[in-house]
Structure formats: C-alpha cells, structure tokens
Amino acid sequence: MKKVVLSSLLAASVSVLATAQTAVNINNGAQQQQNGGSVQLSQPEYNAYTNATSQTDPKAKAAALEAFLQQYPQSAVKTAVLEQLMGAYQQFDAAKTLTTADKVLQVDPNNIRALALEAGLRKAQGDQATDQAQKSADYGQAASFAERALKATKPADMSQADFDTIKKQATPYLYSAIGIDALTRKDMPAAISAYEAELKSVDPETTKQPAPYLQDTYFLAQAYYGSTPPDYLKCSFYATRTATYAPDQFKATFQPLASYCYKKFHGSDEGYDAMKTAAAANVFYPADLVVKPAPTPADFVNQLLANPTTDLATLALSDREFVITNGTPAQADQVFAPVKGKEVKVPGVVVSVTDTDVMLAVSEDAKQANPKIADFDFKLKEPLKTVPAVGDAIDMIGTFDSYTQKPLMINMINAEAAVKAPAKAPAKKAPAHHAPARRKR
Question: What are phi and psi of 9, to 5 degrees?
Fold first, then answer.
C-alpha cells in the first residue's frame, strides 16, 4: 500500500455518520410551558422548523435550514437544526459540512457527531493533500478532534442507546485518524496503540474486506517496522494479513514488506507458510506463533567466510556488502580486496545526483529505509547526459575504489550510467553494378 500511499483502492475513507439527529420534543404555541425537556416555539417558528426539517432533497433541506437559522438565530432548537444542516451538507458539500460542524461545536463543544465528522473529513483532506506540511497539519487537526470525540460524554437529551450507537460507529474511524497522525509524526508507539484499538473495535470479518481497516492493518505493520528497535515479526504478520486479503491487483504492493520483515527476523523464507496461515486466521499476532530468530549478522559473516566453497572473487554483491557492513575490519578488507580496481555494473535506486556524483541505495536495507539511504557513491567520469530523478531505478558502471564501514559507503570511481548499446543498423547492400552499355557500331 498509500503510507505504501492512499491512492489505492484500499485508501482510508470517511465514515458517513448517518445516524438520526437528536430528537426534539416541540410544543407549538407561545402560551404552552416547557414540560419534561420539551421546547417551546411560537407558531410561526414551529411552522418554519417543520417545513425545513421535512425536506427530503439534501440541497433543499440545507437551504431551508439556513433560512430558518437566519430568521431565528437564537432559536431554542438551534443545535438540533445545525446538526440536521450538517447532515444535509454531508451528502453533497464537504466544505460546508466542516463549516457547519464548527458552528455546532461553538454551541455544543461536546457534540460527538460534529467531532467525529471533523475528524473524518480532516483526515480525508490529509489523505488527499500532496504537500507534506499540509498533510501533517490536516492529520494533526483530525487527531485532535478524534481525541475529543473519544472523550465526549452523553448529552442529557440523548438516550444511552443512541449515544452508544454513534460512539460504536465512530470509534474505529477516530482511532484511524489518531493512528495516521502518529505514524506521520513517527510516533510509532502511539500509532501502534491507535491502530490496535481500531481493530479491536470492529467485527473481525470486516478487517478482511478491502476497506480502511485492511489499509490500517498495513499501517500497523509499518508502525512495527519503524519502531525502535523494529519488531520484524509483527511487521511481517500484519503486512502478510494485508497481502492475504487485499484484492489481487494490490497484493504485490503489500507482500514485499511482509517478506522482507520475515526474512529480516528469521534469515530466510523457510517456515513463512505458517506465518501466512496464522495471519489469515487471526486479527492480532497469536501467542502460539513461534518463529526462530536468524543467526546474528556476525554469525552469518563467520559462517560465510569459513565455508570452503565461498569464492571471494565471485561473491554476490549483496553478500560482499553484508560482510563489509557487519564483519570485523579484517573481514571487510578480506572481501573487498578481490574486487578493488575492478569494474562492475550495480543496480540501485537514485538517492541524489550531481554533475560529479550519483548516490544509490543498493542493498535491500538501504532501499527499504524511509527515506532511502545511499550505500554506493559513484564518482562520474563526466556529467550524465540524461540525469535521472531521485527515486529512479538505474544501473551504474564503476570501479571499486574504497569503502567505509560506519556508516557504510562503497566508493566507485570512473563511473557512468549503464546504457544499452544501440541496435546496429542492418548493413546496406552495395548497389548492383551494371556494365555500361556498349555503343553500336
């Protein structure tokens, strides 16, 4: 998957809180007294209220309710009318829905419907924002309203059953708003807490459907991956569950993180089928799922170099880089010496590019990092004719020159972009030779 991005089919969406507005018991007549929570309206105001609230077309209803509020700005039913206006706008105008929700909260700061709509709509704005600062600001506002909604208490004029229904419907979306804000701020413990609370608040079957809950399951995987230290097992579990239930066209988006985290913990994909089975059957990581941790990086290095079949001259680039990163200085020199001064083609993802250097993320760790980390520095022979963009996957040709272990950087010289040789044009046939015509005598 969006962070994966939110432009996929699984993008989180706003919940339409289509619950009934607060019931208002109205006495129509100026001479009648308030009794047991009823509201006293004059006959003209009562007629205007009835006309506005009985409209069935959302646009007509919104216009009638706006007219009522303009005519009776201090009406005893102002909050109820604003709630209905908010519900009408929700069906066709998100901006006016937010404006009306603001007005509801001015007169009723504890209104759970308005708070939930503010959270949902502002999260949706963040999902759609392309500017990162704006996205973060929208998510921050959404989370603030969501936290207020979760703390909201039942108003006196609402039944407990109605309040519980609204709270149950809104709760997963509120935690989703809190989760994406925390994930964006890289507050992984808060993101994990919010997303787990979201998944606990819904029917387990709904978490299998291509809807916000499945998207947020993937975000939960990302939160575990981004934790300090990373929890690779839970990262793999939640990413695997997402990949399992995602529509076929999106499985390839989610599977790489699932496989990467599993291999990062276990060392290989051996036993991954048990992870897939558990992830398909459980919303949360089960206590009885046991995966043996991989040998330490130092163990791998020692095993690799002690293996009599290991040929240091032909060692795979990924293995060579692993030893340089995780071995002792002597072991790093041992695997670098056979290739120093040799030219090689290296595939990677562009991290930065100038007239003199191309920095690539080459290892899986470097490419999975957010942002990506350069682990190869190519010193160019000359500026590239076609300059790649940051994030492009390219091949570079260069000569091994030197390296540093901490932080890892492998330095290449005499570098250039690898390009396919142009196809040779077919050889032109020599023009047919014709002997000059003889003159007749």
Answer: -60, -25
